[in-house]
Design goal:
Blueprint: E1 8-13, H1 14-25, E2 33-37, H2 39-44, H3 47-57, E3 61-64, H4 67-75, E4 82-84, H5 91-99, E5 102-103, E6 105-106, H6 109-116, E7 121-128, E8 136-137, H7 141-149, E9 154-160, H8 172-185, E10 194-196, H9 200-205, E11 213-216, E12 239-251, E13 256-257, E14 263-264, E15 269-274, E16 291-294, E17 297-302, E18 310-313, E19 325-329, H10 332-339, H11 343-348, E20 356-359
Parallel strand pairs: 1-20, 2-3, 2-11, 3-4, 4-5, 6-7, 7-8, 7-9, 9-10
Antiparallel strand pairs: 1-12, 12-15, 12-19, 13-14, 15-18, 16-17, 17-18
Helix pairs in contact: 1-3
The structure holds pyridoxal-5'-phosphate.
Length: 374
Amino acid sequence: MLQPNHRAWVEIDLDAIVANVRTLKQLLHPATALMAVVKADAYGHGAVAVAAATIEGGASWLGVATIDEGIELRQNGITVPILVLGATTAAAEAQALKEYRLQPTISNLGEAELCQRVGTLAVHLKLDTGMSRLGMDWRQGAGFIQKVQELSQLQLVGLYSHLATADEEDASFVRVQHARFEQIVSQFRSDFPYFHLCNTAGMLLDPSMHYTMVRVGLGIYGYAPAPHLQGLVPLQPALTVKARISQIKTIPPGTGVSYGHRFRSHTTTPIAVVTIGYADGLPRGLSNQVQFRLHDQLVPQVGTITMDQCMVDITAVPQAQVGDIVTVMDNAQNWAHILHTIPWEVLCGFKQRLPRLLRQRNKNLSPPVSKIKR
Ligand SMILES: Cc1ncc(COP(=O)(O)O)c(C=O)c1O
């Protein structure tokens, strides 16, 4: 198989994305749509290729955070409906929504009026049922919907809300948000084709919250949102980070490695220099705490991770050679645990300096789909 000719890169298994969407769809009523959330460059996986893979897997909507993310998808031939999850605050943005057939999230009358001015536009109204982020306070939800209904240019396509605690073990506040949302939905059931409340965690938690659409991010990338939701369905992580060995040396006992000498060898130790560092998105906070994979063996990373390189102790792999490929990360959950963060942040942390190489159905690695600039 062709090997990529790079110092370090991200491999995306598009078959895993397709399979994850199919798996998640099986949990839904056939009439319930799956919106694949591909914001932030598809959580670092590459938005255009992932969007196409999710559609192949059965997603019929896409969710992005910004208008530019939506435009990138449109300019690369994606035609399914796209919801912009972020706010619309400027007239030029409303114009772009219209031009690129993107559907905005409307959380207040100001946004609604801004959108009304550009002519006919399909929109989703958002209620804040307890996230305290975007959305009209649910207590004012009914009045808000009625006022927006008076704006003749706006086609009400969706009413939605976002869960704040669906990945916590205590589901009690999810019930509160569901009840608040349901109270408004029950008054306007025939006014919107789509009602949506669930992220991945909500979707796994309770089918009665699926309504007519779910907005799924983390699950399509192959992760359960919390340990207690793991194993409910088989999901495959789609992103792997790889780099190469650029030099091998043997250091005598007592030799310090990297800045600050925060690792010192106890014995004569073979060390490999690996071509990835914190400027690529390998967090410096992982220094001396993480293991990479080389020739199917785990090898400990040693010494402070530097901007472009880091070192590993390759005692377990005497056959290692310069040019060998090192698997730096294939499970974001492990890093999230060490870094006291969440897999979402780990996945979004790999920088553009790492090319995204796409793998699909026995095809060799291919360069990423080109991005057409506005
Ligand atoms: C409004 C909204 N819906 C859905 C999602 C998808 O969430 P998840 O990745 O947990 O499935 C997100 C992600 O943050 C979001 O902001």
